[in-house]
Design a protein that fits this description.
By secondary structure, the protein is an alpha/beta fold. It folds into two domains: 158 residues, Nitrogenase molybdenum iron protein domain (Rossmann fold, 3-Layer(aba) Sandwich), CATH 3.40.50.1980; 115 residues, Nitrogenase molybdenum iron protein domain (Rossmann fold, 3-Layer(aba) Sandwich), CATH 3.40.50.1980. 42% of the residues lie in helices and 11% in strands. The protein has ten helices and eight strands. Strands 2-1-3-4 form a four-stranded parallel beta sheet, sandwiched between helices. α7 links the parallel β5 and β6. α3 packs across α4, α5 runs antiparallel to α6 and α6 runs parallel beside α10. The protein is globular and about 60 Å long. Bound molecules: zinc ion. The site of zinc ion (ZN) has 4 residues, from loops.
């Protein structure tokens, strides 16, 4: 009888236990969606932008407003990257949990050391972010700090998921550290390489790899390449020794191909963030793929096959 009562008590206890709710996440960019998925594989994630879009400029669509309204946590880059659209989404969604200063709004840039910060910014400088370069998701040394803070935030919001999140974070970090050592070794072969870019989207990774940026197709950050700026670039002395023009999939490739035609440089087009393609579906895969593309170009140049 005691045993039976105990069983009934256990059944009651188990059925009274709240079913672990599925976390609803709003991710501004695909890289944060991918990292949330690493930590909480069963989260329901809405991602506002894709690798085919420029994350600086998207529309505050009604479906995105609805997703912010329903979310437990929004994970965005910050440092003004989404200044043109996120404030509108937050205001229209009026989700009390997801507002500036609340735990429901996580900005990756708050947990990273940003490069190129400016004390003074005015319009003459182009689209410069005073906080620094926000494109920090390709910074091999900063991403682990961001993911650690993200894991803590997720655990705070869903305490019942905390042990799982912590375990997955530790596994993720070990994998990232292993790959970072591999990337560091591969960077040696890239020593002395230089590229032309379009915007500062790859700056953190290029700097980490020791690949020099000798020119930018944008006349000023965020301003589209102009004919006059492109012809000025032809006079940049280092152009002759450059290895490639590196652009992102969402960018108009015409300026890069124009410069390639004038100079004979190769154009490398890579996604600026994670994609649906298995090879680049994670940040680790994306960074490895970008390094491979640069390696191929540098090796090609060394053998004179370009
Ligand atoms: Zn930018």
């Amino acid at each position: 009888m005691v045993c039976r009562n105990l069983l009934i008590a256990l059944v009651l206890l188990v059925s009274a236990w709240p079913v672990q709710a599925q976390l609803r996440i709003f991710a501004c960019e695909p890289e944060w969606a991918a990292l949330v998925r690493e930590l909480v594989p069963n989260a329901r994630i809405t991602t506002a932008t894709s690798y085919l879009q420029d994350p600086h400029y998207i529309e505050a669509r009604p479906s995105l407003i609805a997703a912010v309204r329903a979310a437990d946590l929004a994970v965005c880059t910050g440092a003004s990257l989404e200044a043109g659209w996120l404030p509108v989404l937050l205001q229209r969604a009026s989700n009390p949990a997801i507002q500036a200063g609340r735990p429901g709004l996580f900005f990756a840039a708050d947990h990273a050391r940003l490069h190129a910060s400016h004390e003074h910014v005015d319009r003459s400088m182009g689209d410069v972010h005073p906080e620094g370069n926000p494109h920090v998701h390709l910074a091999p040394d900063e991403v682990p700090e961001i993911v650690q803070a993200l894991a803590q935030r997720l655990a705070g919001i869903a305490p019942e998921a905390a042990p799982g999140v912590h375990g997955r974070y530790l596994r993720w970090r070990a994998g990232w550290n292993r790959l970072r050592t591999e990337w560091r070794a591969r960077a040696q072969a890239l020593e002395g390489a230089s590229v032309v870019v379009q915007h500062t989207g790859f700056s953190y990774l290029l700097e980490w790899l020791g690949v020099r940026v000798i020119a930018d197709l944008e006349p000023k950050p965020g301003l589209p390449p102009s004919a006059s700026h492109l012809s000025e670039l032809l006079a940049v002395p280092e152009l002759a020794g450059a290895n490639a023009i590196l652009i992102a999939s969402h960018q108009n490739p015409r300026p890069a191909y124009w410069l390639a035609e004038q100079t004979g440089l190769a154009v490398i087009t890579v996604p600026g963030t994670v994609t649906d393609n298995p090879e680049t579906a994670s940040l680790e895969g994306l960074i490895s793929a970008i390094i491979s593309r640069i390696e191929l170009t540098v090796a090609g140049a060394a053998h004179g096959s370009l």
